[in-house]
Design a protein that fits this description.
Blueprint lengths: L1 E9 L7 E10 L2 E8 L2 E3 L9 E2 L6 E8 L2 E6 L2 E10 L17 E4 L5 E13 L2 E9 L8 H6 L16 E8 L5 E7 L9 E7 L19
Antiparallel strand pairs: 1-6, 1-10, 2-3, 2-8, 2-9, 3-4, 4-5, 6-7, 7-8, 10-11, 12-13, 13-14
Length: 222
């Protein structure tokens, strides 16, 4: 597995601005979570004496390599960290996505400083599964999740709010004889604590075409 990026950051010295993370991978330093600050990179929260002093205010090629129990972090083709992996199946518990160490992802960390990304590549080679390669290039003018953005229509949102933890799902749908699609979902949006309800929405194929991505559409509810 190789997770790499060409990135630079701006911000206060010693403050992590960006990160790369591989989920379900654990080392003696903890999660496979690489923090990137203007003056260096590190993988731990407390042991800052293990920080590798690197000028990250200019573009660098950062890569996490994982192969047969050994994880290595490269900066411009030089090894910065080399640590054994002792666990590769940690359970995903962060359902609200508040913990960036719990998912394979990259991006800005916190609200201090700015990160600049030119390229991100993710490659996986498995003896029993087909190889997988994903790459994003900033010069293409697309977002890293452009595929999702182009295909996502938010029908019935259930946002996080004070004293409200969203709970929804168990979605089902049925195509009716007249061509409409009956969409049914479970939700606790707007309900009292420990209460929930079912939402029914009629969709047509026209509802699914040429809609601004990520926008919630008010459709006919039953």
């Amino acid at each position: 597995m190789v997770f790499s990026a060409r990135v630079k950051v701006e911000g206060p010295a010693g403050v992590p601005v960006a990160f790369l993370s591989l989920n379900r991978i654990w080392t003696f330093r903890g999660a496979a979570f690489l923090k990137i600050a203007p003056d260096g990179i590190w993988m731990t929260e407390d042991v800052l004496d293990e920080k590798k002093v690197i000028d990250m205010t200019q573009y660098r090629e950062i890569a996490i390599h994982l192969k047969r129990g050994l994880m290595q972090v490269y900066v411009d083709d030089r090894i910065a960290f080399s640590v054994p992996v002792f666990w590769e199946s940690a359970t995903l518990k962060d359902f609200l996505s508040n913990d960036p160490t719990q998912r394979t992802q990259f991006g800005q960390l916190g609200d201090v400083g700015t990160s600049f990304w030119e390229r991100v590549t993710y490659r996986v080679f498995n003896p029993t599964q087909p190889a997988f390669v994903w790459q994003w290039l900033a010069k293409d003018g697309k977002w890293p999740d452009q595929y999702q953005r182009d295909r996502l229509i938010q029908i019935h949102s259930n946002p996080i709010a004070p004293k409200h933890r969203p709970d929804h799902g168990y979605t089902s749908w049925l195509t009716l004889k007249d061509g409409r699609i009956l969409f049914v979902d479970y939700s606790n949006r707007g309900d009292e604590l420990n209460k929930s309800h079912l939402v029914g929405v009629y969709l047509t194929l026209d509802d699914l075409k040429d809609k601004p991505s990520g926008e919630e559409h008010v459709l006919k509810r039953q």
